[in-house]
Specification:
Order of helices and strands: EEHEEEHEEHHHEHEHEHHEHEHEHEEHHH
Largest sheet: 7 strands, parallel
Helix content: 40-55%
Strand order of the largest sheet: 5-3-1-6-7-8-9
CATH class of the largest domain: Alpha Beta
Number of domains: 2
Mean pLDDT: 92
Low-confidence stretches: none
Shape: globular
Distance between the termini: 11 Å
Number of helices: 15
CATH topology of the largest domain: Rossmann fold
CATH architecture of the largest domain: 3-Layer(aba) Sandwich
Number of strands: 15
Strand content: 15-25%
CATH superfamily of the largest domain: Glycogen Phosphorylase B
């Protein structure tokens, strides 16, 4: 395969973001190939590999719409000038060759979000100028003649794109996220006990973990309500401006001492290893990496039907799937979990399920796609 120039477009590169981990895993995997790797971004945080070319593209911005539109126009001008062989955008920018729909379909997210709002605010949500801009950009991108392929990280998103935008099914490829199953390992009994002491969790207590920033979308309120009538603990790893409100909710439900807010963590592994299951009743999420990380650590997962990660869950075998807002079903699922993940058949089934989702498999699927498009 001759060397070809690939540009990956991501407005803000944050090492801890899910899309960014897909990008970095893809870039690392693609490094073995004869590839000229380029990243177009407003700002790059984290390490720069000597073989990657970073193109900083940071036009002035005066608000959310101007931020999106400004970056889209500048990035497109840059890639047209550079004349790359393939442009893979992780942002909704008309004119790219490949779009990775890591954020799903904006309208579908708004429909889920509207479920939390009073009637009068629902109408306002859909007439909001920013949301209208995003939906327009998305529609324009799917309709653009340059678009050759769409990468989804879940079958759920593929079906939504086909239904909402009429994109032909053969243009849409599902490539699940990858996980390094040797980096995310189940704890030994000794490790688990040490971590329990460190995080002040009783050694015999059932402990669930919630991982994600943006607590409203990730379903933290439902998670706290579901935990309240049980005796389980909940470790919350992530941040949100409204954290106080969630602390107050836990206090008001009488489980304030069992819900622990740990903030953002660079290393999430010890938190998974201290826990017995992942609880992520997310309102709308194409495929959060945390599901793969938790399963790789041998944790069963409770998630929602509007989460693409549910495609990896066989209810009763390696976790449970409920409606994001069905608190009693979430509580039932918590009761149905093994008291301890370590050594349980559910925990072992969870780890077994993610074993094929390797970075090597991900890179092979990407290379196959790129070759197909270049031919």
């Amino acid at each position: 395969m001759k060397a070809f120039r690939l540009a990956i477009v991501r407005q803000k590169y944050r090492p801890d973001g899910g899309a960014e981990r897909f990008v970095s895993r893809a870039l690392e995997a693609l490094e073995q190939q004869d590839l000229d790797l380029n990243v177009i971004t407003r700002e790059w945080q984290g390490d720069v590999h000597p073989n990657w070319h970073i193109h900083l593209c940071n036009p002035m911005k005066f608000g959310r719409i101007s931020r999106e539109r400004g970056f889209a126009e500048a990035a497109r001008a840059l890639w047209q000038k550079e004349n790359f062989d393939l442009v893979q955008s992780h942002e909704r920018i008309p004119g790219c060759d490949i779009y990775r729909a890591g954020d799903g379909v904006h309208r579908r997210w708004l429909l889920q979000r509207a479920r939390l709002l009073p009637e009068w605010r629902r109408k306002w949500l859909f007439s909001n100028r920013y949301h209208r801009y995003v939906m327009c950009a998305e529609r324009a991108m799917y309709a653009a003649p340059e678009l050759k392929a769409v990468i989804c990280n879940a079958e759920m998103i593929k079906q939504e794109i086909i239904a909402d935008f009429g994109v032909p099914a053969d243009k849409v490829t599902v490539i699940y996220n990858a996980i390094d199953n040797q980096a995310f390992l189940p704890a030994s009994e000794q490790q688990r006990q040490q971590l329990r002491i460190q995080y002040q969790i009783p050694p015999q207590a059932q402990c669930l973990i919630f991982v994600g920033s943006g607590f409203e979308r990730k379903g933290l309120a439902a998670a706290i309500r579901a935990i309240a009538p049980t005796e389980s603990y909940l470790l919350v790893v992530g941040k949100d401006k409204a954290e106080k409100r969630y602390r107050a909710l836990a206090q008001s439900l009488g489980c304030g001492d069992r819900v622990r807010f740990m903030g953002v963590q660079k290393q999430t592994l010890p938190f998974y290893q201290a826990a017995d299951a992942l609880l992520l009743p997310t309102l709308y999420d194409p495929f959060p990496n945390v599901i793969l990380e938790a399963m790789s650590c041998g944790l069963p997962v409770i998630t929602s039907i509007t989460c693409g990660g549910a495609e990896f869950i066989t209810p009763g075998k390696n976790g449970f799937v409920t409606d994001a807002l069905d608190v009693s079903a979430l509580t039932d699922a918590i009761h149905a979990l093994p008291q301890q993940a370590l050594g349980s058949s559910m925990g072992e089934a969870a780890r077994l399920r993610i074993m094929p989702a390797t970075p090597a498999h991900l890179s092979q699927q990407l290379i196959d796609l790129y070759n197909r498009l270049l031919d």
